[in-house]
Write a structure and sequence with these properties.
The chain is α+β, with helices and mostly antiparallel strands. The chain has 22 helices and 26 strands. Bound molecules: 5'-O-[(L-methionyl)-sulphamoyl]adenosine.
């Protein structure tokens, strides 16, 4: 049954540029949003920026601009990054938006009027990094455990929220709703905090100290503490207090955060909501969110990502090299949701090659190539079913159940593993049923029909299931298969057992979804430059520069029909020139026996002087998709052997007419 689903990311501070951690949370929220759309749920997805407070004021001051100017600039970086990563948020909220400010003030006033805010003198250990006073329990050796800094002892008169009053109510709610906070380890952490007892929460800052915030509605000498301001974005973004979005989406609200901000979300926020409910004379249930989903931290090669260590991973750089789709897949597949994970470019490349190039890419091109070869690309009527077909169908049904269950509870890595079990089964099914052998015997035509039919349906199913994580690849697969667009609610059709492709429908020739990446290059780079090189990918590492110098992993076995897809030709080098600021590549003009000469970029500049190549005959891959390298469109690839002294271009052993086929 279709249900409204509201998912939020943390709103990010505008004191630093977006990095891998921000990208991860936002991609996860996007995957959750897309998954729910696929199930037919009505979805609202919100992200945004958190712009008030000490940290922002200090960062702006350091740059000699106003906090608003600074916030505008960094908020813009976040806002513009998300479409690049194919994020489909419905709302981007900023805490400096006038309607948000108004909502914060209304809620403060209500809670104040209901007696849950009081004025008192307070002395405490303030951590600027956390933007809050730390309790004695939280400090380790007198320092903030997250920032490693000694909090500043401060004494001042402030407003306090009676958070402690809600300790028992919150505990009871968590115990009655065991998946209120998930995974379980974080629920247990929160219960342990509650066991120690809650203090009241200081929710103001005197203007003498900080002016960059929202004025308290009941005292113009103070601004609101950032967390009290920021958390309310989840309500203000829906148009609190009333309206269609509040009524529709708030009851199904789910937040997504990393473990660093567990306490504000698992303790400050629900107690604020309980107080608001009390102020309005409503049951707390009306206001409490449904789930808090907590993920772990990405470290870089076991170390915390930080500017000072110089290991901050920039999402766009990676997406540019490996493609957004592979980047999204890697993040979702590699991190067990809830646990920490260590990022390395090498791990990304390994997963890319194993899961995307080998498993998914191979299955897709294999099946479609067979279909085109033996059935003209038309999905056949299924012939009679055999045991192995039934096994594959049973696995498909089991995967669907697992997929829904794991995605609903944010265990995306498990949902993907389940989809990949189907892909592997598809690859095995090809090997076991040997379509090429079936094709030799006309009496076995119905069997071949069945095999090809089931494989096409499997690919269509896979396209739908990977859509939340890799929407473009899924759409591309769907287009080739003739499935059309992947629409909301399609998952339900699959679950009802409907076939996605009609027998008789025409498919297209398969493109290479994920060309293999040269792992040797990435490994060599990492070994040479140490950990830093891994964290800062050099733009020529992989996809853009597909001429592999050496494949570290053995490529999977291919059939002759797959080899036949590669068009190799002899060409004569007409001219060769260096390219300014590119020390590895040469621009070659080749006579390949065609009407016009071809331009091909070859990665041989460190092994040949341009003059040496002119007049030489080479072998090229003539049907490689054109690629832009350093602004030059390369129409093919020159083959070279990887010798101990470097690259050595492959030539016919005696002069051969340009354009001759190489087999
Ligand atoms: N402004 C607050 C959140 C207010 S929400 C009402 C804040 N901002 S933040 O910019 O510091 O973002 C923290 C969040 O960014 C984390 O909870 C997580 O979602 C993401 N990440 C930042 N670094 C991360 C990693 N290294 N790894 C994974 N996610 C991380 O806190």
């Amino acid at each position: 049954m279709s249900q409204p689903f509201y998912i939020t990311t943390p709103i990010y501070y505008v004191n630093a540029e977006p990095h891998l951690g921000h990208a991860y949370s936002t991609i996860v929220a996007d995957v959750a949003a897309r998954f729910h759309r696929l199930t037919g749920d009505e979805v609202r997805f919100q992200t945004g920026t958190d712009e008030h407070g000490d940290k922002i004021a200090q960062a702006a001051e350091a740059r000699g601009v106003t906090p608003q100017q600074y916030a505008d600039q960094i908020s813009g970086l976040f806002r513009h990054l998300w479409p690049e990563l194919h994020i489909t948020n419905d709302k981007f909220i900023r805490t400096t938006d006038p309607d948000h400010k108004q909502v914060v003030q209304s809620i403060l006033q209500k809670v104040h009027d209901a007696g849950d805010i009081y004025f008192a003198k307070y002395g405490g250990h303030y951590c600027v990094g956390c933007e809050r006073f730390l309790t004695e329990h939280e400090m380790v050796d007198g320092k903030c455990p997250d920032h490693g800094t000694v909090p500043v002892y401060q004494e001042e008169e402030n407003y306090f929220f009676r958070m402690s009053n809600y300790t028992e109510q919150l505990k009871a709610h968590i115990e009655a709703h065991p998946d209120f906070i998930r995974p379980e380890r974080y629920k247990n952490e929160v219960l342990a905090m509650l066991e120690q007892g809650l203090e009241d929460l200081c929710i103001s800052r005197p203007k003498s100290r900080l002016t960059w915030g929202i004025d308290l509605p009941f005292d113009a000498g103070y601004v609101t503490y950032v967390w009290f301001d920021a958390l309310i974005n989840y309500l203000s973004g829906l148009g609190w207090p009333g309206g269609e979005n509040m009524a529709k989406f708030w009851p199904g609200a789910q937040h997504l955060i990393a473990k660093d901000i567990l306490k504000p979300h698992a303790i400050f926020w629900p107690t604020m909501l309980m107080s608001l409910a009390r102020a309005e004379g409503r049951p707390a249930q009306d206001y409490l969110y449904k789930h808090l989903n907590v993920h772990g931290y990405w470290n870089v090669d076991q170390a915390k990502m930080s500017k000072s260590l110089g290991n901050v991973v920039r999402p766009l750089e990676l997406a540019e090299i490996y493609g957004v789709e592979a980047f999204r897949y890697f993040l979702l597949r590699d991190m067990a949701f809830g646990l920490d994970s260590s990022f390395s470019e090498q791990a990304l490349v390994e997963r890319y090659n194993a899961d995307l190039a080998n498993d998914l890419g191979n299955l897709f091109s294999r099946v479609l190539t067979l279909l085109h070869k033996f059935r003209g690309g038309v999905v056949p009527e299924p012939g009679p079913e055999q045991a192995e077909d039934a096994d594959l169908a049973a696995l498909g049904a089991a995967v669907l159940r697992e997929y829904r269950r794991e995605n609903r509870t944010f265990a995306f890595h498990k949902a993907l593993a389940s989809v990949w079990s189907l892909i592997s089964a598809g690859n095995k099914y090809v090997v076991v049923s040997e379509p090429w052998a079936l094709a030799k015997d006309p009496a076995l035509a119905p069997r071949l029909d069945r095999v090809l039919h089931d494989l096409c349906q499997l690919l269509a199913r896979v396209a739908v299931l990977i859509w939340p994580v890799m929407p473009l690849t899924a759409e591309q697969m769907a287009g080739v298969l003739g499935l059309g667009r992947i629409e909301p609610g399609l998952l339900a059709r699959l679950e009802e057992g409907q076939a996605l492709l009609d027998p008789g429908s025409q498919t297209h020739q398969p493109p290479a979804l994920f060309p293999r990446i040269d792992t040797a290059k990435v490994q060599a780079k990492a070994a040479k430059a140490g950990q830093k090189a891994e964290a800062k990918p050099a733009p020529q590492a992989a996809k853009k520069d597909q001429a592999p110098e050496k494949a570290a992993e053995e490529p999977a076995e291919i059939g002759i029909e797959q080899f036949g897809q590669v068009k190799l030709k002899v060409a004569t080098v007409l001219s060769a020139e260096r390219i300014p600021k590119a020390d590895k590549i040469l621009k070659l003009t080749l006579d390949a026996g065609e009407e016009e000469p071809r331009t091909v970029v070859a990665g041989v500049a460190q092994h040949y002087d341009p003059e040496e190549l002119v007049g030489k005959q080479v072998v090229i891959v003539a049907n490689l998709k054109p690629a832009k390298l350093r602004g030059i469109t390369s129409q093919g690839m020159v083959l070279a052997a990887v010798g101990p002294d470097g690259l050595c271009v492959v030539s016919p052993s005696k002069p051969t007419p340009p354009g001759s086929q190489v087999r």
